[in-house]
């Protein structure tokens, strides 16, 4: 079995206590961690380290986090960035997002909040195909006796038309692009519903039940979209 590659996070923070806490937290969560204590070094390492995520403080020596973000985006580097701002720095939040940050967290914050935001940012980034590009659209796909034409929004089973809702088409396209992978309910909410941190994952289960009735021979014993206990779903087509 191939060894799973660790995600790598680059933490750019000049407050030593905060930097150590973030390093320990991400290490505990299984990340490889790279560090920088000023903006100039952070900018350099963002180009060299090959990190999957950047945690970037706004107030830094040598170069502010806002300038780091602006320079990275100007150079075409689209590493996902979460900015850390101090309470009351509303203008920094606005500028950070304007300059291309993906999210921000206001100090003081809990590590679990930061971790949840990091995972959401990474899910969106990976669902987009990386590099900030939208995923290549699936035009048509067939599995078993089901055929789906995404261009014309048509579907059939055993040669007979079936009606899929716009969201069901989006669900099927997402599953097809991630076939063979376990997809969590949170990933589906982020990518198909475009919700963040929404607790109503039963919404996904309700839609999955309706979709299975349309594409499965035995909806109660699905062949194509199977439930992975405690994790989510997997498309096997």
**Tally of extended strands?**
12
Please write the string of helix (H) and strand (E) elements: EHEHEHEHEHEEEEHEHHEE
Shape estimate = elongated
**How far is the N terminus from the C terminus?**
23 Å
What do the pLDDT scores average to?
83
Helical amount among residues, as a percent range?
25-40%
Unreliable sequence segments: 131-136
Rg for CA atoms: 21 Å
User: Which sequence of strands runs across the widest sheet?
Assistant: 2-1-3-4-5
Largest sheet: 5 strands, parallel
Strand content: 15-25%
Indicate the topology.
Layout (H helix, E strand, L loop, with lengths): L7 E5 L3 H13 L3 E5 L2 H10 L4 E5 L7 H10 L6 E6 L3 H9 L4 E5 L3 H17 L12 E4 L2 E4 L4 E4 L2 E3 L3 H12 L4 E3 H9 L8 H14 L9 E4 L3 E4 L2
Parallel strand pairs: 1-2, 1-3, 3-4, 4-5
Antiparallel strand pairs: 6-7, 7-8, 8-9, 10-12, 11-12
Helix pairs in contact: 2-3, 5-7, 6-7
């Amino acid at each position: 079995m191939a060894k799973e590659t660790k995600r790598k996070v680059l933490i750019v923070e000049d407050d030593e206590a905060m930097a150590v806490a973030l390093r320990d937290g991400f290490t505990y969560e299984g990340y490889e961690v790279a560090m920088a204590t000023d903006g100039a070094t952070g900018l350099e390492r963002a180009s060299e380290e090959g990190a999957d995520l950047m945690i970037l403080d706004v107030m830094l020596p040598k170069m502010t986090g806002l300038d780091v973000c602006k320079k990275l985006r100007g150079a075409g580097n689209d590493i996902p960035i979460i900015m850390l701002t101090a309470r009351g720095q509303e203008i920094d939040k606005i500028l950070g997002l304007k300059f291309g940050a993906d999210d921000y967290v206001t100090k003081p914050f809990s590590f679990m909040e930061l971790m949840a935001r990091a995972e959401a940012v990474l899910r969106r980034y990976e669902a987009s195909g990386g590099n900030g590009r939208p995923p290549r659209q699936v035009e048509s796909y067939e599995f078993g006796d089901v055929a789906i034409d995404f261009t014309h929004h048509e579907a059939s089973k055993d040669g007979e038309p079936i009606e899929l809702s716009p969201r069901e088409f989006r669900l099927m396209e997402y599953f097809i692009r991630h076939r063979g992978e376990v997809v969590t309910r949170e990933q589906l909410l982020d990518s198909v519903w475009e919700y963040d941190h929404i607790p109503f994952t039963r919404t996904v289960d309700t839609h999955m039940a309706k979709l299975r009735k349309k594409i499965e021979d035995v909806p109660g014993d699905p062949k194509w979209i199977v439930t992975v206990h405690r994790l989510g779903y997997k498309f096997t087509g």
